[in-house]
Amino acid sequence: MPTGRIKYYNLDKGFGFIAQDSSEEDVFLHSSAIKHADYEELRVGQRVKYNVVEGDKGLVAKNVEVLLTPTERRWLRQGKTIIPRGYSGFPSQNQDQFYGEEKSSLNDKEDSKFNTTQTELKDKSQYKPTTQSETKHKDAIDDIKEHSSRQLSFGDLYILKQINFETPMFFALYNHDHLPAVVLEMTLSGLTLNCNGKEQLIQKTDVKYCYKDVDAENVIAILQVDEELKDKKLKPIESKDEVFSIDAGTIRDARKDGNSIIVTLREGEIFEGTVDWISPYEIKMVLKNGAKIVVFRHAICDFSLIEGEK
User: 78: burial class by Cβ within 10 Å (0-12, 13-18, 19+)?
Assistant: First the structure.
């Protein structure tokens, strides 16, 4: 059976589209074709398998079955709620309007792509931590509820997407540790990682930057280090007052104009590249050799802009 991901789904009207893995042609999906088993609702980003038939207006999906990830199967066995799959980079708000429009500007698409309804956010307050020890995550529920009081940032959405796709990643920690892991869950203050089959909770303030496994070789190849700063052996920040101040407007202008930025981290790592996106807590950079990293702003101790580039 062919496989793909839910590209758009209108729960109220009961129809949507599947983006196929093997073709660029979308497949129409009606709710009557879905095998309701483990999910109460079908959501954007979920992986599915299905049969395809030719309809009057194009391809139509039949016998649609949701494909669960190992993490989701584990949650179901534990009787826990599955994280919504609506944060995978597709629009989750005003979907009818989005699909009805011919084209919009890039900025409009970016805004709509990362907007999240309060209903979706409130759903997250129902989820329970998935670690074996409840005391290990005693603050997780409060963290998730606090998430629901604000709009998810680009950084939140980036991590949620990696959870959905179970992306192999590396997390650069202090003492120049590069931890290989898959993200299992996220709270405001921490990440639960699967490190070689073992769950490990790390605080976000202990992370300097992260990148996907596929970028590892290029990240290491282009990494520069300020040896004098490295010898200072700076520790993670302990308060918000210690965060290095960077004008967000400067970074946005650099992204808009295609100018490169240079960031220096607290243990001396130096990265130069263009800005992909910025959030209050992270900057995603495309380095000069094409590798992509997400730098946590609390780990930055110096910043400069290279003007005049395109």
Answer: exposed
